[in-house]
C-alpha cells in the first residue's frame, strides 16, 4: 500500500545541511500497522511528511496505493492526498469550528454535498465515540477527545491509508491506550493501513504488526514484529522485552566461565548466533544458550500460540531441571502474545542438551 | 456660542467623521486583507512563495508605515485631486485616510494570519485542500477574532487620522476643533468635540471587543 524507496531529504540552511532522511526503504502492506520508532531528531517526522508530500523528498520515490506521489502534478496530488488520512500530535483542529464542523471540513475539501456531509459527519463521530459532543468546540474537549475528532476528520474521505504523526505523544497513558485501541479497531474494521511514527515503545507494542527503528535518518532494523523478536540482537526485541538490568547493557554474562563448553565473553550474542539463528529459521521463537559456572543460561523467545503453553513448567517436569527464571516478561502484542525469558538451567550445556533440544523443538522452535 | 449651536455643529461634525471613517474602513478592510494575505502567502515557506512580490509589497507597506499621516496627507494631494476631483471635503479626505490605513491594517492582518498554527495549515494541505480553501476556511477563518481586534484598532486610528484630515479642510470633528476650539477660542466647542471623540472611540472599542468575544473559541 505504501512503498518508499531510496528516500532522502536534506534541510539546508545558510551554514550547514542537515540530512533528515538518509536513504530509507519502506514497504507497508495493505491492512498493516507499521510503526517507525525513534528519538526526536531521528528523521521520522520528515519521513512521514514525505509520504503525503508535505515535504518534497530530494531523492527516492513514494508510492501510495499504486501511485508515485513524487511525480504527480499539484491537482492530482491534492486528489491523492484526499485518500491519505493524517493525524497529528497536537491534533491540528480548527479552533473556530465545532467538532462536527471540523469533520465536515474534510468533506468540504472533497466537495461532498451538504446533506451527505451531515449524515457522514454523524456517522464518523459515532465511529470514534463522540456523537454527543458534535456541537462542542475543540477548546472544550480533553486531549483524547480532540484526537478522536482528528481521527474522525482523517477518516472522513474514506482513505485507505492513515498516517499518524506522534498521535498519542501529547496524551496521558490511559488516554493513549484508548486512542490506540480505537486505531487498532479501525484498522481491523475498515482494513485501514496505518503508518505511524512514535517515540513510545508502548505504541509499537500495542498495535504494530511491523516496525522499524530509525536513527540518524536511517532504519537500523525493520521487519514484522514476529521476525524482529526472533532476530538475535534485535534492539526492538530487547526493548520490548527487557530481561532485567543485566540485559540493558547489551553484553550479558561477562562472568561466564563454563565447564569447558563455550567460555564466551559475550555469551548471548555468540550463542545466539550459533543456536538462535538456526532456531529462528525453523519457527517463531529463538533460544540462545551460554554457560556459567555450573549453570546454563538460556534466553528464549516465544510468540504466537506457544506463548500460551507452559513451556517452562514442562521443562521442569519432563527433564527434571530446576529452572530458575532470571528475568523476562510476557506481553500481549497487536498480533500475538509473546514472551521472552532468561532461564538458568543447572549444569553445563551438554548436561542440558536434551532440554535445549526440547526447547528448540517446542514452541521455541517447530 | 450657545449650547444649541454647539450641538448643531457637533452633529454635522460627527456625521462627517463617521462617514469618512466608515468609507475608509471599508476600503482599508479590502485593501489591507488583500495585501496582508499576499504578504503571508508569498513569503518563503508560504503557500505561494514569490520572493520578488513579497519584497515589493513589504517595501510599499514599510514606506506607507514610515510616513507620519500628516505628511502623507499633503503628499497625496495630487493623487486625491486626480481621483476625487477636489482636495477639500470629506470625500477627498477618504483617499489619504485609506492610503494611510491600508499598510497599517495589512501588517495587522499579516501577524494575525501568522498566529494560525503551522500544523493546522499542514493538516488542511494533507487533506487535499486547495490554496483558496486554505486561505478562506483556515487562515482567515481561524484568525477572525484577531482580524476583528485588529480592525478595531484600525478604525480608532482612522478616527485620529480623520481629525488630522480636518485640518486641511476635510471636515468632521477635527475640523470643528481647529476652527472653533483653536482659532476662535470657543472652549465649549473644544470640550464638546473631545467628549464626542471619546464616546465615539469607546463605542467602537466596545463593539469590537464584543465581536471578538463572540468569535473566539480558543
TrEMBL record, chain B:
The keyword Transmembrane applies. Keywords: Cell membrane, Membrane, Transmembrane, Transmembrane helix, Transport. SUPFAM superfamilies: MetI-like. This is ABC transporter permease. PROSITE patterns: ABC_TM1. It is found in: Cell membrane. The chain crosses the membrane at residues 20-41, 53-77, 83-106, 147-169, 189-212. Pfam families: BPD_transp_1. NCBIfam families: PRK10782.1. The keyword DNA damage does not apply. Its main location: membrane.
Amino acid at each position: 500500500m505504501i512503498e518508499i524507496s531510496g528516500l532522502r531529504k536534506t534541510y539546508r540552511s545558510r551554514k550547514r545541511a542537515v540530512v533528515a532522511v538518509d536513504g530509507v526503504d519502506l514497504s507497508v502492506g495493505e491492512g498493516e500497522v507499521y510503526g517507525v520508532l525513534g528519538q526526536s531528531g531521528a528523521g521520522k517526522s520528515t519521513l512521514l511528511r514525505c509520504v503525503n508530500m508535505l515535504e518534497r523528498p530530494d531523492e527516492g520515490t513514494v508510492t501510495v496505493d499504486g501511485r508515485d506521489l513524487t511525480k504527480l502534478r499539484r491537482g492530482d496530488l491534492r486528489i491523492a492526498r484526499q485518500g491519505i488520512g493524517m493525524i497529528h500530535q497536537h491534533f491540528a483542529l480548527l479552533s473556530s469550528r465545532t467538532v462536527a464542523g471540523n469533520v465536515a471540513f474534510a468533506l468540504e475539501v472533497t466537495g461532498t454535498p451538504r446533506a451527505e456531509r451531515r449524515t457522514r459527519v454523524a456517522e464518523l463521530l459515532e465511529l470514534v465515540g463522540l456523537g454527543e459532543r458534535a456541537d462542542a468546540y475543540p477548546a472544550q474537549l480533553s486531549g483524547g477527545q480532540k484526537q478522536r475528532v482528528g481521527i474522525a476528520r482523517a477518516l472522513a474521505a474514506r482513505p485507505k491509508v492513515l498516517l499518524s504523526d506522534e498521535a498519542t505523544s501529547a496524551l496521558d497513558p490511559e488516554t493513549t491506550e484508548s486512542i490506540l485501541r480505537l486505531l487498532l479497531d479501525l484498522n481491523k474494521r475498515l482494513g485501514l493501513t496505518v503508518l505511524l511514527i512514535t517515540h513510545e515503545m508502548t505504541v509499537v507494542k500495542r498495535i504494530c504488526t511491523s516496525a522499524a527503528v530509525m536513527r540518524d535518518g536511517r532504519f537500523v532494523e525493520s521487519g514484522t514484529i514476529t521476525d524482529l523478536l526472533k532476530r538475535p540482537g534485535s534492539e526492538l526485541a530487547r526493548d520490548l522485552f527487557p530481561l532485567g538490568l543485566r540485559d540493558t547493557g547489551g553484553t550479558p554474562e561477562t562472568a561466564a566461565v563454563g565447564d569447558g563448553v563455550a567460555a564466551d565473553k559475550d555469551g548471548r550474542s555468540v550463542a545466539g548466533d550459533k543456536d538462535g539463528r538456526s532456531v529462528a529459521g525453523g519457527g517463531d521463537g529463538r533460544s540462545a544458550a551460554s554457560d556459567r559456572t555450573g549453570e546454563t543460561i538460556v534466553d528464549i523467545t516465544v510468540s504466537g500460540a506457544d506463548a500460551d503453553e507452559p513451556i517452562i513448567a514442562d521443562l521442569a517436569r519432563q527433564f527434571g531441571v530446576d529452572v530458575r527464571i532470571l528475568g523476562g516478561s510476557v506481553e500481549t502484542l497487536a498480533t500475538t502474545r509473546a514472551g521472552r525469558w532468561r532461564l538458568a538451567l543447572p549444569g553445563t550445556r551438554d548436561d542440558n542438551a536434551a532440554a535445549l533440544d526440547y526447547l528448540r523443538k517446542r514452541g521455541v522452535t517447530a | 456660542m450657545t449650547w444649541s449651536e454647539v450641538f448643531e455643529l457637533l452633529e454635522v461634525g460627527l456625521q462627517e467623521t463617521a462617514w469618512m471613517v466608515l468609507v475608509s474602513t471599508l476600503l482599508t478592510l479590502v485593501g489591507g486583507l488583500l495585501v496582508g494575505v499576499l504578504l503571508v502567502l508569498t513569503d518563503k515557506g508560504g503557500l505561494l512563495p514569490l520572493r520578488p512580490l513579497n519584497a515589493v509589497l513589504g517595501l510599499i507597506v514599510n514606506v506607507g508605515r514610515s510616513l507620519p499621516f500628516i505628511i502623507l496627507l499633503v503628499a497625496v494631494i495630487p493623487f486625491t485631486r486626480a481621483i476625487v476631483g477636489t482636495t477639500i471635503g470629506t470625500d477627498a479626505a477618504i483617499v489619504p485616510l485609506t492610503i494611510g490605513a491600508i499598510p497599517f491594517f495589512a501588517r495587522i492582518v499579516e501577524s494575525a494570519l501568522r498566529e494560525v498554527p503551522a500544523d493546522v495549515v499542514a493538516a488542511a494541505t494533507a487533506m487535499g485542500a486547495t490554496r483558496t480553501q486554505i486561505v478562506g476556511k483556515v487562515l482567515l477563518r481561524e484568525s477572525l477574532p484577531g482580524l476583528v481586534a485588529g480592525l478595531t484598532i484600525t478604525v480608532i486610528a482612522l478616527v485620529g487620522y480623520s481629525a488630522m484630515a480636518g485640518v486641511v479642510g476635510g471636515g468632521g470633528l477635527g475640523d470643528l476643533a481647529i476652527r472653533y476650539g483653536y482659532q476662535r477660542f470657543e472652549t465649549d466647542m473644544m470640550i464638546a468635540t473631545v467628549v464626542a471623540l471619546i464616546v465615539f472611540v469607546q463605542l467602537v472599542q466596545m463593539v469590537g471587543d464584543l465581536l471578538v468575544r463572540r468569535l473566539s473559541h480558543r
